[in-house]
């Protein structure tokens, strides 16, 4: 039998590469004949895993090496890190599963934890820590899922849905060209929904009504998808780099890793509530250029993540002007624009800054502004709705981005609908208007209170320092770690604050993200925690108690 | 005033690069000082676009070149093509808009079209051509959007929703850990939903219940996202290539372009209903390897897109064995697995082939199988739900993919829910069971009939040849084009079948995709059309009449 030609005398699972290579040199015809023989060997094999002699021989001729292994993967993809769902979060998931098994009586580990659930403060995921969805948009979303006769036209619809939700769903179904949310939309998103975004931005920024062209708006699966798209367009090759704050939201560093671009860090100033320092921006750019890096973009996160600060209009104007002067594309992450808590503070968009300085009219700025339904007061993370508005981006570049979006067909239509509803809520006078505003207000006030509780509470712990969280959803305290921790973590091969966070998790069930995952000055240690959990007060006390024990342990 | 240092004497909008370079050499401190001065210039400028002398001078110092231009974009991204939403589709959109404007009386073009709407047969988007959503999954989806008190627990819920939809929504809400669809899910997707997928695959393939590990299933935004993820992991560098059928679905070529990998084509055999030819697979691989290409994967699309063929179990086994022998990762696009129309044909998965040949047990195959809610009889394209099942992929590679998924947080939760509902419909005996099955059957029978109407109709046109569409949603006829067309298209700079498709669109309103967008043998011309439209009969007649006129024109 010709299987002997195939080196099937060898029964080692890991064949040598030379025998594989021998295979490769066979002619096409020979391969085809062999396949027929092999297939014949299996023809009588109706059951599973029941192999006769012939097929065993065939199987033994097949290389057991694997093509796709950890070693076959690009360095860029391997290098890429994403701390928010990293080591600590994975351990937290493992413990959750273990607690679940213990409750069901199917655990065999025998491990006992001094808590009965994990408090996930590692990620800005409001609904997962008890925040309720705002009602009205959800009623419209439900009606969008229902066929007309069973939804907007159902005789009993008004018993379950308010009139203004029914009417809005009706007009959105028209905007969906009558196809409903089961059809692919325009690859940039439904035109009418993009119009809702345009009018929202114009109102927010006091811009001329109708001045924003919907062709410059792309609806995307959360802001993340838009960010990756723009970075893909910006990073031409490995000489390119993008300025990102330190600390930063790790999607930026992860995407730069993946695309093979340089991370050009600029430090935020912790002492001035994570403020911007224009000298530091100039330093960062000059240093990068001295190294031959082609700095193509700058990421600004305002309100800050993980740092929670809110920039003044002057600070925003400074950054915008910096980008204009240096001809750098400004990637403006404004997903926390509704999350501004301190009296007197107000969100001021990069777009508005550029507009007021005449840079838009003069076509002297390139700006991409990102927003999302995941944050604010809706917190609709799971719906994956977001947008990017492009300012000063040439039409031919826009077309490249459109092509990229088209290759993925479109972002999910329900997420697009949620963006529309966030940008365009019920109107004053509508039956749901008052309750809608009240619900949003209640969520906002809750966030505002917990921001204070958490940041003041953490700041009051001896050894901790925490800037006031005036925006976003996070506190980013620094934590003094005993020398023993630094030594011990070295041996374990991870950062000192990872060791701290792991100990905190295993002792208290509180899941935070080590600050090292976001970047920080050398020698600083700390973590990021959200202040979303209604347990925030308890969380602070547990962190306080644990820290004392932790320090005494080392 | 120090703005004179900035070359503001020049009022040209396009500054020379030397003046820009001069900027770059300024020290960080100087830059910071300048920013203060610039900001001061704008401080009194409350309105928009109203610039005083000082600010005009500042603006004139800003470079008007742009950082992000068509020239600054990577060749890979520029090269990337995606025909399904390419030239013809864009022209169709333009005409749709023009027709809309004409109806509203706001068109000034004066162009008259001999049709009143575009028939979009360019894309497998069933709901956009009149297919209705299957009711029951939509009822569950609606309830998932509603807060409990307004949905599953609402006193009037049973007047609008069947009991089994309410109960399913209740259990899915539990599977969402009580957070609802507004929370980020596990980055691989909700565990229970992945379990639904696993049980679905086991039933479909006659595999042992419980044999599929949900850790090997990722829920994604349609199959597209999963395909891009896997290709990202496979293409380590520009030496890598992936075998793709010719013709193929252009997402594969587009993604290979973007990642900088080689497209290693293998021809399908049109004469045998686009059948596979194992000699051709061997030829393709040998040729690529002779060129030094590291062939890491092979894409199999079954049922075929754009070609509509259904492979026999023997053919599937041949391809699986080919990949096993050559240690190539098999990317198995099985999104049309429900769309098999011919008596006697049946979908046979690559997974099942591998299982029956003992390759899974022996860990001798690497296989990634993709599925989607967009096709089949649901046609829920806009929901963007899909999955990939990994077979024989190492745990450390799985973790890299998990990290990649985590960087985008999660796919949209409603889309995940739709995957669960597709894999796990109402149970026999449930109140909706009979009507659900009947609705699915009706959609299927409609597709089956139109597949016949369209493929036979096109094949009967003199000059056309069309293989029977036994699966999927497409016909892919070849069309003889007069020599004059080939000449004319050369001058216009696009393919002859693009010229044909453009003429067809402008003459009849029928939007097809030129076959050149999918790949075909040199000298062959044709197009892809879906057979989704209820107007399929008329479409065939219009194509027939147009072809006659078109040929006589050239």
TrEMBL record, chains A, B:
The answer on whether this UniProt entry bears the keyword Transferase reads: yes
A Pfam family that the UniProt record links to this protein: Aminotran_1_2
Tell me the keywords, alphabetical order: Aminotransferase, Pyridoxal phosphate, Transferase
Show the InterPro entries listed in the entry: ALAT1/2-like (IPR045088), Aminotransferase_I/II_large (IPR004839), PyrdxlP-dep_Trfase (IPR015424), PyrdxlP-dep_Trfase_major (IPR015421), PyrdxlP-dep_Trfase_small (IPR015422)
**What's the superkingdom here?**
Eukaryota
- Aminotransferase class I/classII large domain span: 162-533
Q: Where is this region: Disordered?
A: 1-20
Q: Which cofactor does it need?
A: pyridoxal 5'-phosphate
Extract one GO molecular function annotation from the record: transaminase activity
The Swiss-Prot or TrEMBL record describes its family as follows: Belongs to the class-I pyridoxal-phosphate-dependent aminotransferase family. Alanine aminotransferase subfamily.
Subunit record text: Homodimer.
| UniProt-recorded name of the protein | Aminotransferase class I/classII large domain-containing protein
Q: Which organism is it from?
A: Discostella pseudostelligera
